[in-house]
């Protein structure tokens, strides 16, 4: 009974927090009208910049993965990720935080590093890396994960995770239950602007996540539909 009461209180506080966030949200002129009244549907991609007032609206909470690495995640997103992680642990899959909130300064450092790398350069940056202000990681709502295998080995390299279709299929089918979507699905590269990334999840809330998942949409396609 105590656990049930605690769960009810937690869900109530989550609802209150999300409602307060929605009421205080003021969209940036660069993306106004592209996501409706729900701030958890903020659209940040190669054409749409992070709202200027974003950090005034969200609460970033500290988090750690099993390796002791430190992260910041928007508070509601973090709570739902922890629930997703616990659910998957019960099914024998261990996911861990790998990349979450990223400041504008951090994005600039990555851009400069890639640009200076002779094996990467400008063309590679333009294709695979978001410009400063245009990364979804600025929102605090995006989470990249890696996998810890039952034998303790770590699956963290991009090519390795892309090849692990069985494990990620099991992960992806649980995302909507906890308000997440697969942000860059396979076959939607022309819409999202990015290649398939099975490790990159985005929090949008349970109802929207379910609709996006069931209809095999991207957030861009979902937003286009609700504007009609």
Description:
This protein has 228 residues and is of the alpha+beta class. It has one domain (2-226): Muramoyl-pentapeptide Carboxypeptidase, domain 2, CATH 3.30.1380.10. The chain is built from nine helices and seven strands, in the order αββαβααββααβαβαα. Strands 3, 4, 5, 6 and 7 form a five-stranded antiparallel beta sheet that branches. Helix 3 packs antiparallel against helix 4 (121-128). The model is unreliable at 2-11 and 22-36 (pLDDT under 50).
Number of strands: 7
H-E string: HEEHEHHEEHHEHEHH
The overall number of domains is 1
Classification by helices and strands? alpha+beta
Question: What's the CATH topology name?
Answer: Muramoyl-pentapeptide Carboxypeptidase, domain 2
Taking all residues together, what is the mean pLDDT?
87
User: Uncertain regions: pLDDT < 50 for 5+ in a row?
Assistant: 2-11, 22-36
* Straight-line N-to-C gap: 45 Å
Helix content: 40-55%
How would you sum up the major sheet?
5 strands, antiparallel
Radius of gyration: 18 Å
**How would you sum up the global shape?**
globular
Q: Work out the strand percent.
A: 15-25%
How many helices? 9
| CATH class descriptor | Alpha Beta
The CATH architecture assignment turns out to be 2-Layer Sandwich
Give a short overview.
This protein has a single domain (2-226), classed as Muramoyl-pentapeptide Carboxypeptidase, domain 2 (2-Layer Sandwich).
């Amino acid at each position: 009974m105590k656990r049930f009461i605690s769960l009810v209180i937690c869900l109530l506080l989550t609802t209150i927090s999300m409602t307060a966030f929605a009421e205080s949200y003021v969209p940036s002129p660069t993306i106004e009208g592209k996501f409706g009244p729900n701030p958890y549907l903020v659209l940040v991609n190669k054409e749409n910049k992070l709202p200027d007032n974003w950090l005034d609206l969200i609460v970033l909470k500290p988090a750690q993965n099993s390796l002791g690495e430190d992260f910041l995640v928007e508070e509601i997103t973090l709570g739902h990720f922890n629930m997703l992680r616990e659910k998957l642990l019960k099914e024998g899959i261990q996911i861990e935080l790998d990349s979450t909130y990223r400041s504008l300064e951090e994005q600039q450092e990555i851009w400069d590093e890639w640009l200076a790398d002779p094996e990467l350069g400008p063309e590679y940056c333009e294709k695979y890396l978001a410009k400063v202000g245009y990364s979804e990681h600025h929102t605090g709502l995006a989470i990249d994960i890696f996998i810890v295998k039952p034998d303790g080995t770590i699956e963290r390299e991009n090519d390795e995770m892309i090849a692990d279709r069985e494990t990620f299929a099991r992960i992806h089918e649980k995302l909507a239950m906890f308000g997440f979507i697969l942000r860059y699905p396979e076959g939607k590269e022309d819409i999202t602007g990015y290649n398939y990334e099975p490790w990159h999840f985005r929090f949008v809330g349970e109802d929207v996540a379910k609709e996006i998942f069931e209809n095999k949409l991207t957030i861009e396609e979902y937003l286009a539909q609700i504007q009609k």
